[in-house]
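User: We ran a pulldown and think these components assemble together. Before we commit to crystallization trials, I'd like a predicted model of the whole complex to look at. Sequences follow.
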Amino acid sequence: MSKLDNIIHQPVRLRIMAALTALDPGEQMDFIYMRDLLKLTDGNLGAHLSKLEEAGYVKIEKTFVARKPRTFIIATGKGRDAFTEHIAALKQIIKDTQGQ
Amino acid sequence: MDKTNGENLKESIQESPESAKDSLAAIENTMLRTRKAVAASYSSPLMILWGLLLTIAYASAYFYLKYAAVIFWTMAGAGTVGSLLVWSVLLRKIPFKEPAEEKINLRIWAFWWSLLLYIFIWLSLLAPFNGKQMNAFIITAIMFGYIIQGLWFTAYFMVRLGLFITAMTLIGFYLLPNYYCLWMAFMCGGAVLCTGLYIRLRWR
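Assistant: Here's a predicted model for the assembly, 304 residues in total across the polymer chains.
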């Protein structure tokens, strides 16, 4: 039976994980780009990413591209699994409700 | 995850199954927007470049038919150099980074160069033919590449564009032989250009 994940279920973190898992495994998304895509502030996105990083669901990588500092975020295997399980649990809830 | 927290969370959502539906809708929407953003970042600059070149080349060939070969070779050269330049800029600016070990870029380039090589092989095997036949063959073969790449990356706009231009090429070839180049300027170059612009403006 799939379990809901209370770290992922928070609406902003849910969208962060959705954006990251839409990419191919191993592919990373730029911090600024994610901020604009999800219409968040730097602080808000940073705080939620820290929570996800603490849980081991994302990895944050700071690097230089053409001598400019860039921050990239990637969903870990653990994060992808937790997200898949969370989606399965949500679908199960809807299915159970419809069955009642 | 703490099991009790998970169960409490599940109970609260079960009280309001609408929130489960809302969550799934938010997930689907975000994933779709992300996939479109990836497509926009990678494809739209190249589609705009090639769309412009194709439109100019076909329109020029319609008015100066005897220079068609020179026009299309010039377009192919300009397109190749332009694509390399655009790609080198994209690699620095693109908001996504793929894992080094995947080498997706290399696989895309390998795919397109292989297709081009085979086009030349088939052309030498099929010769002789007239300029219009050669042009229609090259365009439909490249659109075949679009369809394959679209299926490969689940970028269905490429599949739709590939099918549309293939159909338009056949219509121009069989039904409008005297206006083929002008037809293709609008239906091939124009379609690639408009798709590139649409993706750039709406999907980013």
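Chain A has one domain: 11-99. That may be worth checking against your pulldown data before setting up trials.

User: Thanks, that helps.
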